[in-house]
Automatic annotation (TrEMBL):
CDD domains: TM_PBP1_transp_TpRbsC_like. It is a multi-pass membrane protein. It comes from Leisingera daeponensis. It comes from the Bacteria. The chain crosses the membrane at residues 6-25, 37-58, 64-84, 96-115, 135-161, 192-214, 220-238, 245-265, 271-289. The keyword Manganese does not apply. It is found in: Cell membrane. This is ABC transporter permease. The keyword Transmembrane applies. Keywords: Cell membrane, Membrane, Transmembrane, Transmembrane helix.
Amino acid sequence: MDLSAINPVLLIASLMVAATPLLLAAIGELVVEKSGVLNLGVEGMMIVGAIAGFATAVESGSPLLGFVAAAFAGAALSVLFAILTQFAQANQVASGLSLTLFGLGLSALMGQSYVGIKPPRMGDIHIPVLSDLPVIGPILFGHDIILYFGIALTAAVWWMLKYSRMGLVLRAVGENHDAAHALGYKVLRIRLMAILFGGACAGLGGAYISLIRVPQWTEGMTAGIGWIALALVVFASWKPWRALLGAYLFGGVTVVQLNLQAAGVAIPVEYLAMSPYLITILVLVILSADKSSAPASLGRNFHASR
C-alpha cells in the first residue's frame, strides 16, 4: 500500500471532472421535479446522450458538436416520457423505468460499431496567469468548458427559481397544478418545457462521460450515475447549490475509491466500488424524514379536463 502515490492536487481536479455528469443530470432533474414531474428515466437519457454525443464527435471530428447532439438526443427521448405521462396520463414511475430500459437497449444497438474507437479530444481552457498558479491553477482553472458550463448552469437555475417570474410559475405548477391552471397558467406546456430541459441536461451529462471523463464507448458505461443523480436531487432538498455540493461529494467518493484501489489499500475492490452507492443510500435514509422541500404535486399527473 503506497498512499504517497496519490497526488492531492490531481485528486481534487479529478473530483471536479467526476462530479460534472452528476451535476448536469441532477440540475436537469431538479427543474423537472420542481414542475411536479418525477422522471426516473435519467439513466436512459444519459446513456443515449453518451452514444449520440460520442458518435457525432467521432463522425464530425468536433466534441462540441457531439455535446449539442447529446442534448438533442436526451431531449428527444424525454419527449417520449412527456407523451406517455402528460398526454396519455400513464404512471410516471412506470414510464420513467421503461424509458431507462429503452435507453439502455437503444444505446447498445447504436454503439455496436463504436467500441474501441477513441473520440476527438476537447481541449482544456487556459486562462492566462490564473491557470499557471501553483495548486489553485490546476484545480480551478485547467478544465474543459463543459465543466464550467455545469457550474454556470447551477447558478442560472438557482437565480431562475428564486428571483424570476418563470421560476415562480414553475414552482406554482409543482406545488398545486390545479390552482396554477385556475390562474391561467399552461400547466402542460410548462411541464413539457421542464421535461425537455431535464432530458437535454441528462444527455449532456452522458456525453461528458463518453467524451471527457472516460473517452471511449462502452455499453452501459453510465453505470448507475443517472440513479445517483436522482438521489442527489433528494439529498439537495431540491436546492441547486446543495446539488452542486452533493455532486462534488459523490464525485469525490468515486475518485477516492479509484485512487485507493490504485494505491493497493487492503480493502476488497468490491467494497471500494460499492462505496459511492452505499453513501447515496445512507444519505437518503438520513434525509428521508425531511419531505417538506418536495413539491406537493410531485409525481401526480395533471388532468386538463378538471
